[in-house]
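[#protein-structures] MJ: dropping ACO11 thioesterase here for a structure pass
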Amino acid sequence: RATLLLSRCLLKMVKGNIIVPEDILSFCCNGLQGSTSPPRSREPGEREEAPGAMASPSPARNPTEVQMSQLVLPCHTNHRGELSTGQLLKWIDTAACLSAERHAGCPCVTASMDDIYFEHTISVGQVVNIKAKVNRAFNSSMEVGIQVSYEDLCSGKHCSICKAYATFVAQGSLGSKVRLKPLTPQTEEEKIEYSIAAERRRMRLVHKDTLKDLLTRSPQETELETRDGSGAVRAERTRVESVELVLPPHANHQGNTFGGQIMAWMENVATIAASRLCHAHPTLRAIEMFHFRGPSQVGDRLVLKAIVNNAFKNRWVPIVGVPSPPSPRPSAPSSLLSGSMEVGVSAEAYGQEMSISPRHINSAFMTFVVLDQEGHPRTLPMVAPEPGDGERRYREASARKKIRLDRKYVVSCKQTEVPLSVPWDQSNKVYLSYNNVSALKMLVAKVNWVLAREKEKVRMYTLEEDKFLSFRIEMCVCIPASRAFSLLSNLRRRHEWDSHYVSAELVQKVDDDDMIYHVVSQKLRNENKPQDFVILASRRKPCSKGDPYVVAFRSVTLPTHPARAEFTRGETLCSGFCIWPESEEMSKVAYYNQAMPGYLNYVTTNVAGLSSDICSTFEACEKFLLKNKDDLISRLQDF
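AK: finished. structure tokens for ACO11 thioesterase:
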């Protein structure tokens, strides 16, 4: 109030040509700094107070964070007055690139984009808010996390649109790669994203192999549902080809075409192809994970091609871990019903001379739906693929849909929404492994752990959160971290130190990092028969300096190992080890467990100090590690 009155007086004095003393003018311009007293001279030796020091401190902001707000104007929208998805992709790419360049300190280019699911459309007059920040920097690439929401200025409503992850590569002079400085996460959220970024990177690298593996194991005589030809639309009729000339506004200061601009052009031709199948105006619902194969520059001609690969009939599609709904289900989310179509689109570049073979820039797969007046997906015409490549694309589209659903419902959802014992099979092994390791890393990154007990070298911490009571056992052991990792990741040896384990049989070696065990444990106090578990054990070596060795456990379901009458089938949601090297010969070993209801009494008894069973178990673990750290025979067996 005092500032307002002084400002009004100052304005009157200026209008009346009254000379304003310099100290008063400075006082009014700089504000009161949280005080109503006039400025005073500093005492000798007194430090100058930073502006705003009296105000409540605000949390430190990530230096790579970029925020963008865009008002949706008619020029950004389609015929329905909704924001064009191509325009949104351009904004997303721009914000993400600016964030990457803040960290790199040099120009960056888009290397890839993970799956994007668009939850809502955005109308003209609303505001798009985009927040982007670097989650983790690797050698020359970095992952940028992007959150997109819209804001209705009239109602004040905010709503999430999508969350995306993009990979950018830093480029030096003449296109050379730049080695990036490491990123240090500060908040709990940043630590979680930093830790899981390594798992997402691993999943990207095996994406192609996952599709190939699924197609190899699928029967070659995959049903082509359009053989009768009734009502089917020939895929060839949906084919679209268009050309764009890359001009300076489409490129960055190095002359490379913006990745978001290429995505916008690709979305345009994909929408035309989808419209030719349904003779309506489709809505883009998802974009499959894609990679940019190479750059294009100002002056390039980009040839964009699109075709509908497959249209899925309006029926229930089984989803890993999601129970089938009753029929009919008119109010089911569109992502669960298959009234959708996949459009494949590619971008190739060439210069003025077409005699040279075009350069492949990018290929992407986009999922469209056609919504009725109530917002539900309409049934689409069937697609009749042409023989040869058309039938191959048709089958690949079905495989991609299976993988897409696995990724969305096993990877993207919250840990508490994933059924405990998710069915395991070859097609979802990558995503279950990701979910297994990322769940443990999220638990490790939590900051509200409380020291509950301490017995000699063993410390026990607890974390109370939502419906879960989690505990952590921590100790330092004189053993190299790599050796402790090797010993603790082998469940067949756990009975040597954990008296609760009777046996652990290796059921399936998925790969070098993932194995499935059938574990038999001792009887619980209130049970008259032992428990058994089917456990996926996922192990990870450090991705970079400072990362721990990780061994994660979670329950899965295997058809070959159903529940049997002689056992009580148990489940574990999230548990495992993290091992940090303290020195070449010393490691910090921590065990984490999200306690299931059947074990709560056992855990709380130990936390309360009424039992020392957990501490004793990990004292035995320390002895086991020390005893076997120089065991050459067991070391060779581990490899």
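MJ: nice. The chain has three domains: 63-216, 234-316+335-415, 417-628.
AK: one more thing. The longest helix spans residues 389-412.
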